[in-house]
Amino acid sequence: MLKVVCAASVTLSSSAITGLTRLPVTLRHRVKVQLQRTVAAMAGPKKKAVIFDMGGVLVTPPQMAINSYEKSLGLPRMFIQGVMMKGMPDNAFCRLERGELTLSQFFSEFDTELHLAAKEEGIEMPADISVQQMFENMQSGQPVSVMIKAVRNLRKHGVKTCILTNNWIDDTPTREAKMAGMTFFRHQFDHIVESCRVGIRKPSPEIFHRTCKEIGVQPQEAVFLDDIGRNVKAARQLGITTILVRDFDKAVRELEEAVGLQLTNFPPPPVACKPDEVPHCFVKLKSGMKLHYVDVGEGPVVILCHGWPESWYSWRYQIPALSLAGYRVIAVDQRGYGDSSCPTEIEAYTQEELTGDIIGLMNALDITQATVVGHDWGGAIVWALSLHHPDRIRGVAGVNTPFQPANPKGGNPLEKMKRDPGRFDYQLYFQEPGVAEAELERNLDRTFKACFRSSKKEDWSFGGSGLGTDKVRKRGGFLVGFPEDPPLSVMLKQEEIDYYVQQFRKSGFRGGLNWYRNIEANWKWNNKTAGRKVLIPALMVTAGRDLVLTPKMSSHMEEWVPNLTRAHLEECAHWTQIECPGELSRILIEWLDKIHQSHDWRETRLRRPRL
Q1: Are 364 and 10 in contact (CB under 8 A)?
Q2: Are 223 and 51 in contact (CB under 8 A)?
Q3: pLDDT profile of the chain (611 residues), mean per 10
Q4: In angstroms, how far is CA 241 from the centroid of its own chain?
Q5: What are the CA-CA distances from residue 254 to residues 46, 114, 156, 439, 540 (Å)?
Q6: Which sequence positions are flagged as catalytic?
Q7: What is the pTM of this model?
Q8: Cα separation of 126 and 178, whole Å?
Q9: Which DSSP symbol is given to 390?
């Protein structure tokens, strides 16, 4: 049992331990095989290795921090950088980058050089100038997402990747921040060569030769990216293909041309994780509820919230894809489902309670912020989180489920539905406790085979006329009209149906159906947010063949969600995660990369409670 700060408890099954920090072994192998097949279908790379500078290429330029610091002190622009270059190669800065001085030693020597240069140029030095403060500002740069994505895709193609950086030995009290950054990059690259460790700095030809030797390539087999012209010139003279970085997107396009590969839109592998391949975790919240969740990967946190009648398993394709793209993926069994708590009381399933579960989970795992992605009912939960808890949500994505603003003047939506049920008639059928439960639990295999069907014509070979979600009460039941043994959907395997059957045999349908029995309570609670807009980054994925959550339902969203990105899958019905798994994963990854461009790598230190 692991105790955490919030007094909740977290436990992990023994099979989970080894899978916590990366893709579990069997899943990693299957993903790797699929990646190899994908890569094999493409043209091979023109180069064997790509070498990246750090500051100004992988991280926003440190020169920006120096310029800003100069301006704040009223010093002439480029004065400090001029002193850094003056007296090369034997000045304090060059000796720092060769490892002859530690950072704390450098501060005093460089301070002396600054004052001497100021005296020579007739510049009055500010009394409060601090070389230490300037270097702390320099180290606050952020990873460049388009470059990190290119690095990951180079490695998928088998191209070796290396960082070659003029760096220093940090012995200051703030060194932990720099080490967190280097740890982040060590996970991303095959090799890292630091000038302070080898005693040579760029643009010396020797450091390029040494780097190529360490990687195991000839200079002509490598590409080098740097934002400093003299470093690029030195590498080019040795026969290395070079790219001078002034614009990150343009540099990546040049890199794609140099290596002959597509690096920004590499398709995620459509590999579904199996239940026994992923770590299964449990947390007991302060409320007393127990939540089961799957936790895979490292990086910014993405919480996946399923709908009805589903489970964490509905995200089985997205879990490996998103974790492979550099995210920590938490797929939850929401209250009433699977191995999570399943109270019988209807009032236990209000959106206030259900959003509280997600916040409680984040508190228990010491997660400050997360991006939340929801499908179907899960979509309603993540949109509610974006309004009621915007401080905890980095981004919000609705898959099929649109954002609906609070409407206190519109009246009780349940009463409106009773007057004109239309395609929502099934929700009225679900209102009477015990009725739908009896029908859906009678034959679980039939229930899931009937529910999970794609938009493809072959999925309705038995005839689907009159089997919509309208007129369910008139038909006499949700499944009335379906064969007793429906054919398996083209998007499913029998083993996947068997897992849903196994999970719902534990939980039953009452919990999930109780979500539908709080329409009035949810309306009253959400009325507290009347007039509020969703201001955080948001994504709306619509599906052209979803007959219940239609794309038209989202037409108002730009008015209420100003920072909205849209994506549309025309040939897709309701079960988007499994009908269009690769397309949905690609959409999510591109959006996640966009909103995490400014992700601070130091956040990765606050990941999970230690075992």
Answers
A1: yes
A2: yes
A3: 33 35 64 61 80 93 88 91 91 95 93 92 90 84 85 88 95 78 82 96 96 96 96 97 95 94 71 90 95 92 97 95 89 97 97 97 96 97 97 97 94 94 96 96 97 92 79 95 93 96 96 97 96 96 96 96 96 96 93 75 38 25
A4: 33
A5: 13, 38, 19, 60, 32
A6: 376, 516, 574
A7: 0.72
A8: 27
A9: G
